[in-house]
Design a protein that fits this description.
With 234 residues, the protein is of the alpha/beta class. The protein is 32% helix and 27% strand. The protein has one domain: P-loop containing nucleotide triphosphate hydrolases (Rossmann fold). Helix 6 links the parallel strand 7 and strand 8. Bound molecules: adenosine-5'-triphosphate and magnesium ion. Adenosine-5'-triphosphate (ATP) binds next to strand 2 and helix 1.
């Protein structure tokens, strides 16, 4: 089998919301490639199109034009590729970390992470072992059996991060993942993401306003008004 050179390929990606006079071009003609193991930051002001870009790559938000190729599979080419099982691709290839943590309220922290593993056919014991290990590495060893309402915002966000990392996805997409965290926990999250990028060869795209986080990144994209204006420090 050929070795896949890029984890993410984006070519002339455009996303237009709405039609006619009220149409908004949120992303205009974006082209970039990210290799396995690369950690890439997306910086830009509010409304510049960062979340749109992430959700279009993440098989959540259908691109209007252009191509998206994930781990060698063309998922969009002038709209979604017909016949793709988007849900399955999302589950197997992608890990998401959002601004809002989206934990399942009636499951404990441990169960919230385990479910991501069990969905991908790990046994309950294997899922429990890996979920526990991840939560401990995010300083949540004392919160395994707590429900989301009993967690602080930062703790809940770290559970959501553990869940996104659980299946060691090829592509991790994070939208302001450290916004709710203090400096120490923010740094723990970043070092875990870096370790995952290196060890597991995952491509990681992080939207952030936090310049402290951007220091260790391989590349930085600056987005303005739907356009990737600059690539700093590649
Ligand atoms: N579902 C939608 N329908 C219509 N317009 C939208 C929709 N989602 C986003 N937009 C518009 O697209 C543009 C880009 O929005 P987007 O959410 O991608 O920006 P962002 O860079 O993530 O902003 P923030 O930093 O505030 O999260 C904005 O003008 C926004 O109003
Ligand atoms: Mg956003």
């Amino acid at each position: 089998m050929d070795k896949i050179m890029y984890a993410i390929e984006v070519e002339n990606l455009t996303k237009i919301y709405g039609k006619g006079e009220t149409a908004v071009t949120a992303i205009a003609d974006a082209t970039f490639h990210v290799k396995p193991g690369e950690l890439v930051a997306i910086l830009g002001p509010s409304g510049s199109g960062k979340t749109t870009l992430l959700t279009a790559i993440g098989l959540i938000n259908e691109p209007t034009h252009g191509k998206v190729i994930i781990d060698g599979a063309t998922v969009a080419d002038e709209g979604w590729t017909p016949g793709l099982d988007l849900k399955r691709l999302r589950r197997e290839k992608l890990g998401f970390i959002f601004q809002a943590h989206n934990l399942i309220p009636f499951l404990t922290a441990l169960e919230n992470v385990m479910i991501a593993l069990e969905i991908n056919h790990l046994s309950k014991n294997e899922a429990k072992g890996r979920a526990t290990e991840l939560l401990v590495s995010l300083n949540l060893g004392h919160r395994l059996n707590n429900y989301p309402t009993a967690l602080s915002g930062g703790e809940a966000q770290r559970v959501a991060i553990a869940r996104a990392l659980a299946n060691k996805p090829k592509v991790i997409l994070a939208d302001e993942p450290t916004a709710a965290l203090d400096t120490e926990n923010g740094k723990n999250v970043m070092s875990l993401l870096k370790k995952l990028a290196v060890d597991n060869h995952s491509a990681i795209l992080v939207v952030t306003h936090d310049h402290r986080m951007v220091e260790g990144f391989d590349r930085i994209f600056q987005v303005n008004d739907g356009r990737i204006a600059d690539e700093i420090g590649s």
